[in-house]
Amino acid sequence: MNAFVQGTLTFFAILAGIYAATVLIYFALGYGITWLNDRNPERRIQKGRRGEKRKAVEIRQSMASILVTCTSVAIGLFAQYQGWTFTPWAFSWWTAGPLFLLCMVLFDAWFYFAHRLLHTKLFYKYHLLHHRSVAPTVWSNDSIGLVDTALSQGFYAVIAFVVPFPPLILLAHRLFDQINGTFGHAGFEYFASPTARYPWPLLCTTYHDQHHAEFKYNYANYFSFWDRVLGTISPVYDRRVETLEGEAPAISLKRPSQSAPTQEATATSDR
């Protein structure tokens, strides 16, 4: 009985630590990127649409979905701690890079196929909440239904039983995914470059923004590989990125003058 109680306390301590850190990062990124967006209004991707009015709703939903994500991570780490999985590979700075990249590749495959599943007729009801953000914002990344979150983020609870990643790799990946997802939903483009379009496999914010705007393209998270191979990439994505490369003004750290109306002032809001 004591072992059970001790194990339960350990699990919830792991979960509480991960959840507290993730919520802190969620708000730090949200307000930090919003500060940057406010100073670069011309970098808004969907010029005629705004999603900021959904902020309060999205934050409330995010607090619940982040708990599901963190529970998945806690399950994986706790299982390793208890010795229920393969012994994790030893961590070293020589292997950290390749292992992190492997984790990214595996997560991207998991996310792509889970995301495709969530867009089927049977499962879309669980994913609908996330797509109410037609013009996503920094607060939209975790505004997801709980079943949806369990499917897309269940990777961490499963991968520990399949690939013996060191705990630090799983935690580093979770941090990276939070940062990547927040920028991916920011609604403003800062990463358009030749490496974000064919023949490179990397992505920029426009990739996922198009998914929210058009619904049936761009299901992947980090790389365009699966979408390109399976024909689900937006046919205008590469051309759009190339256009943004030439159009984007220099990044500014100063708030723009309010003396003249801008496209921001006339943009419509998501309903």
UniProtKB/TrEMBL annotation:
Region (Disordered) residue spans: 251-271
Keyword Membrane tagged: yes
Annotated transmembrane regions: 12-36, 57-79, 91-113
InterPro entries recorded: Fatty_acid_hydroxylase, Sterol_Desaturase_Related
Chain intervals with Polar residues compositional bias: 255-271
Principal subcellular localization: membrane
One example of a Gene Ontology biological process annotation: lipid biosynthetic process
Coiled coil residues, start to end: none
Cellular compartment(s): Membrane
GO cellular component: membrane
Alphabetically ordered keywords of this record: Membrane, Transmembrane, Transmembrane helix
Molecular function terms, GO-annotated: iron ion binding; oxidoreductase activity
Xref: PANTHER family: STEROL DESATURASE (PTHR11863)
Name under which the protein is recorded: Desaturase
